[in-house]
Amino acid sequence: MENNVNDISQYKDVWVFAEQRNGHISPVVVELLGEGRRIADETGSNLCAVVLGNNTGSVVDELARYGTDIVYSAESPLLENFTTDAYTKVITDAIREYKPEIVLYGATHVGRDLAPRIAARVNTGLTADCTKLEVDPTDKKLKQTRPAFGGNLMATIICPNHRPQMSTVRPGVMERAKRYETASANVVNIEISLTPSDIRTKVIEIVKSRLNLVSLGEAEVIVSGGKGLGNPEGFTMLRKLADTLGGVVGASRAAVDAGWIDHSHQVGQTGTTVKPRIYIACGISGAIQHLAGMSDSDIIIAVNKNPDAPIFNVADYGIVGDVNEVVPALTDAFAEF
Ligand code: FAD
Predict the structure, then answer these.
(1) 285 lines ligand 1 (CB under 6 A)
(2) In a 10 Å sphere around its CB, with 0-12 CB exposed, 13-18 middle and 19+ buried, how is residue 194 labelled?
(3) 187 in helix, strand or coil?
(4) 319 Cβ inside 6 Å of ligand 1
(5) What residues does 317 pair with on adjacent strands?
(6) Is the Cβ–Cβ distance between 223 and 282 less than 8 Å?
(7) Which end of the chain is more exposed for a tag (fewer CB within 10 A), N or C?
(8) Chain-centre distance for alpha carbon 295
(9) What is the value of pTM for the model shown?
C-alpha cells in the first residue's frame, strides 16, 4: 500500500472538494469552506479547495472569495462533465502528491460516489454523512460524528493511523463561509495524466429533471406535512400556506412512502437536513428520524391533534387541532398581513 501507516507526519492542510457544474459551485461547498476555515484556523493549517473541470477560472475566483488560501485546479476537456473514473483518478493522484491532512466532500450524489473510491485507493478510512466535526489542535485528529443505528445514537469516529482523514458532510448542517468582495488565493495547477481510455463512461446528453425539485436546504420558510394530512390533497392545502409565506413544502417520510409527494420534499435523516427561519410541521408526530433533519430550525410551529405528540417537545409554538381547520385559518390570517 502506498500510505505508510507510521508516517502520517507528512500530511498537512485541510482540503475541500469544490463540486461545481457549469461554473457554479454547489451550495454545500460554501458550508464545507466555513467548516474547513474553522478547522484550518484551529490547527494552523491552510484551507485549500480542489476543483476539477474545463475553464474553471470563475470558480477559482469564487473559491478565493470564500476565504480559500490555496486552490488546487485540474483543467481538461476530459473533466468538463463529472465522470466517476476521471474525477477519482485525478483526486487520488493529487492526494498522493500533495498529502492533505483532511479532505471534506459534500454528501451529495457526486461526493458519495467519489469519496469511498478515493479512500480505498489511498488506503485510508472514510466517515460518511457527518453532521459534526471537531479537531484536536495538537495532533490534528478529526472527531467525525454521524447518526448511526437508524438515527438512535450519534457515533463519533476517528481515523488514528491513516491519512488523509476523510469525511462526507451532510448538506445544510455546517455554517456557511463568509464571502469577501475582493480576495485572492494561491493557485496550484494539478498536473494530470488522464487519457480517454481511463474513462469507462461517456456523457452523451445532460437532461434536466422534469420534476419541480424543491430547494429545501436554502428555504427560509418550510411548511411540512405528514401522515396526519390524511391524503395527498392535504399537500395542496399546505402549498397555499407555503405560497402565502413565500416558503416551500416539506414532508415526513411517512407521507413520501404513502406516495403523496415526491421524495425530494422529504425532511429528516434519510431526506434533507434543513435550518429555515420558520418550520411549520403539520400532522407530523415528531419521530427521531424526522427531528434529526429539522430541529435546528430557528422557530418551529407544530400543528397536531394529539397534545402528547413528540413534535411538541421541540416546538416553539404548538397548536393542538385538526390540520384541516388550522392550516386554512393560518393561511387566511397570514394573507391579511
Ligand atoms: P405518523 O408518525 O403516523 O404521525 C402522524 C401524526 O399526525 C400523529 O402525530 C397524529 O397525531 C397526527 N394527526 C393525525 N391526523 C391529524 C389531523 N387531522 N390533524 C392534525 N394532526 C393529525 N421519517 C422522516 O420524516 N424523515 C426521514 O428522513 C426518516 N428517515 C428514517 C430512517 C430510518 C432508518 C427509519 C427507520 C425511519 C425513518 N423515518 C423518517 C420514519 C420515522 O420513523 C417516522 O415513521 C415518520 O417520520 C412518521 O411520519 P409522520 O409523523 O408523518 O407519521
Answers:
(1) yes
(2) middle
(3) strand
(4) no
(5) 301
(6) yes
(7) C
(8) 16
(9) 0.71
